[in-house]
Amino acid sequence: MTDESLLSSRDRNRVLTVLLSSLFMALVAVSIVNVALPSVEAGLGASSTDMQWVLSGYSLTFGIVLVAAGRAGDLYGRERLFVAGTVLFGLASLVAALSPSILVLNLSRAVMGVGAGLMNPQSTGIIQQYYRGADRARAFAMMGAIVGFAVAIGPVFGGAIIGWFPEGEGWRWTMGINVPLSLISVILAVMWLPKTPRSDGKHDLDPIGALLLGAAVLLFMLPFMMASDNINTWWFAPAGIIVGIVWFAWEQHYRYSGRSPMVNMALFRNPGFTLGTAMITVFFAGTTTVWVLIAQFVQYGAGESALMAGLIGLPSSFISIYTSFIGGRLVMKHGRWLVVTGLGISIVGLILTVWSAFAIVDGAPIWILSIAVLPLGFGAGWITSPNQTLTLRDVPSNYGGTAGGIMQTGQRIGTAVGTAAVTGLYFTHLSSGYDVAFLWGYVLIGIFMTIALIIAVVDALKDHGEPAK
What we know:
With about 475 residues, this protein is mainly alpha-helical. About 80% of the residues lie in helices and about 0% in strands. The chain starts with 8 loop residues before the first helix and ends in a 7-residue tail after the last helix.
């Protein structure tokens, strides 16, 4: 089944329900952690390095398996990989909730990342396969709305859970909530996802290419997570680049030998795909830590509860839900300039957020931070989903999972780099005050956002044609 006409409108709605339920689960798992870190620290006696691994270990394993998982889904059936990833995610979440030590917690979080990495490229591939034009834009807009809702409800729900239980214990329930959500996603997937045939045998998984790319991503991301403990780990980064070059050479050799490589390099001849992937990578390097620093500042700098830290971002996140729906319609008319506008609005939000942090330290009420971050939510709805629609519009459906995996690998690398760089800068300047540390962290976030804006403008000026056909 390779054509969207084989599914009725009702069936496509059911498919989207399955995909959105899994996306919601995976994102809540991420957003809850932002407010759960102090509870983890109290419950397991974790160090600041341990906390960084709680944040980044998930993204590390997520990034390693994404492209190979997308490729496997393209070849062997996306619904099969989707179900397998969801089951693994749920089981690892159960282990995380029962973790007796920070080591077990971080290992289980890493396995959760593998599960999410198996699951997520299939969502993009399924949308590429069964949705076209305006329907595809609306599907990605719905995904953007779910992103906003999960980001909104995750910290609030997590803060409430943490408040209900003794100090150091609430974080366990923030992990355990994934277990019933995973079960629901699996049941819906088995009932409603269309069964796709296996490959006709003309393609293969390219296991050597998969191992080389996984090693390259691992080596490049590791120093951004470990350098604070051992500066010598920076040598892993150039090693990762070298392995990445070897991977590229292998893929070319594989293609010239008459076989089908894991990644069709022709994808990168499309400037829309290349620039869109580059933009979202840099954007994620900045945006990932926006709410991490806010949660840290509200709880430690302002002395408020985890629930308050979650409530601060609630209005902003709900605005992103609205703008995601609007973006799904506007992207058909405005194309890349919609992404440019979203980035510009987000940069204004960064400036207002830093100003409000200094005002709070000087005695202003905490709620002004909730107002200051509103542009961040407004802009977000016009960045991620419209960019995904435009970046993948010319990708053949049989490479939908692979292309989605490449984009999400960039996001995970950006997440690892941004989390390490921004939080490292923040903690380095804590001795000067929470407001000063907050300023330095947001300056670096602003640099990432500005680079993303420049890439988006270049992409818009190239005018790749009518958007989202």
